[in-house]
Amino acid sequence: MAVLLRGLYQLAAGAALLIAGPFLLVRRGSHYLPTLAGRLGSSEAAALESGGFLWIHAVSVGEVLVADTLIKALPAGLPLLVTTVTPTGQERAKALFRDRAEIAYLPFDLGFAVRRFFDRFRPRALVLVEGDYWPLVLSEAKRRGLPVAVINGRMGDRSFGRMRRLRPLLGYLFSRVDRFGVQSAEDRDRLVSLGVPAGRVTVTGNLKYESPEPVLKPELEERLRALAAGRPILLAGSTMPGEEEQVLDAFRRLDGAMLVIAPRHPERWDEVAALLGKNAIRRSAIPGAGALTPRPPLPVHPGTPSPGEGETYVDVVLLDSLGELAGLYRIAAGAFIGGTLVPKGGHNPLEPARFGVPVAVGPSMHNFRDMAERFDRAGAWRRVNGAAELAAVWGEWLADPAAAREQGERAFRLLEENRGAVGRTLEMLGPVLGPGAAA
């Protein structure tokens, strides 16, 4: 029966790829074509002659940052292989782990690609960051005797709803995972209700509370402050389609501030740039802000001096760069976390909280359910529902910096109170990593 199901799955996966492939290439060919060989199991990453990689799989940027927290706690000599699904995740992994790990794409879940990948790297164990369950990858890991563990696992509302409908098939999938380390008791209970034995699930906490210090860019901070010319800086991070218009509407209701806006996905930079209008500039067009591939500046009001020539009238900066957002929160007087005014499930609010910056979010935070409940209970952020409410909250903070600092300090205290997940995760991974694997 298992062989039949595996065969049917491969046929379905292959057919889906053939059908979707042309559309993906037409719409985002430049995004995916350079990665195709890697996704078919042929990677440029170096393989160990003797195998032995600890393989850590992280889907995209958020999971890569969680992986970074774990990797910093592992022995320096432990051979590591890190895979991602998205090109942005791949770029971030290369920036973080270039001198520490081999970096590759997760192969398509097709038999020949998966076998080619395993034959090349011969990993000794697989760690899935937050859970990304591919049947053939997990089946091949089981066939080759690899222990498999999930770290920082979560079972969001949407995922749980889908998986409940597939419960009869999940026994085969989840039986391939030896240990689950999850963020909360609710995540544990949901996995158990889906058929995972309770003894294989441990509540380890959320590693995002212990993410490493972000990279700081003092030169860029200095240039942004110069552009602001004494005005406070508001930062809207990880925005999604349908949110930029609301953020800009909120900002334009205020006076005496500068806005930095950072879309979540790089392929949308030009699209968002078209929304900004006059008095805006790309981060990549700011002179003296550090090396970055230059792009044309956005239109600025006629007669406005260029940055560096004295007083400037730039009101909005488009952060068209990767890896700089988290560190820039420290210069913000107030922040908004994207993916929350549209039904996307939210993004990590801990990046501004680390610096005691007051945070506003919309109603959609189901991807961070446990964290959102903690922030709500502690009054560690402000919930807003649309441009008018965001403008009102930002306006309060600009008018009363002491109240804004108090708001931000509640978020910082919450972050400090929830540390400890690294030690619990390493303990859970003990049988997977083997003796002496903790740093």
Q: How would you characterize the overall build of this protein?
A:
The chain has 439 residues and is of the alpha/beta class. The protein folds into 2 domains: 35-212, 3-Deoxy-D-manno-octulosonic-acid transferase, N-terminal domain (Rossmann fold, 3-Layer(aba) Sandwich); 218-414, Glycogen Phosphorylase B (Rossmann fold, 3-Layer(aba) Sandwich), CATH 3.40.50. It has helices at residues 2-32, 36-39, 61-71, 87-97, 111-121, 135-143, 157-165, 167-174, 185-193, 218-228, 244-252, 269-276, 325-328, 350-353, 369-378, 387-399, 401-417, 421-433; strands at residues 54-57, 80-84, 102-105, 125-129, 148-153, 179-182, 201-203, 233-239, 258-263, 280-282, 316-318, 334-337, 359-361, 382-383. The strands form 2 sheets. A 7-stranded parallel β-sheet has the order 3-2-1-4-5-6-7, with helices on both faces. Strands 10-11-9-8-12-13-14 form a 7-stranded parallel β-sheet, with helices on both faces. Helix 3 (61-71) runs parallel beside helix 4, helix 5 (111-121) packs across helix 6 and helix 16 packs across helix 17 (401-417). The longest helix has 31 residues, at 2-32. The chain starts with a helix and ends in a 6-residue tail after the last helix.
Short description:
The protein is of the alpha/beta class and 439 residues long. The chain has helices spanning 2-32, 36-39, 61-71, 87-97, 111-121, 135-143, 157-165, 167-174, 185-193, 218-228, 244-252, 269-276, 325-328, 350-353, 369-378, 387-399, 401-417, 421-433, and strands at residues 54-57, 80-84, 102-105, 125-129, 148-153, 179-182, 201-203, 233-239, 258-263, 280-282, 316-318, 334-337, 359-361, 382-383.
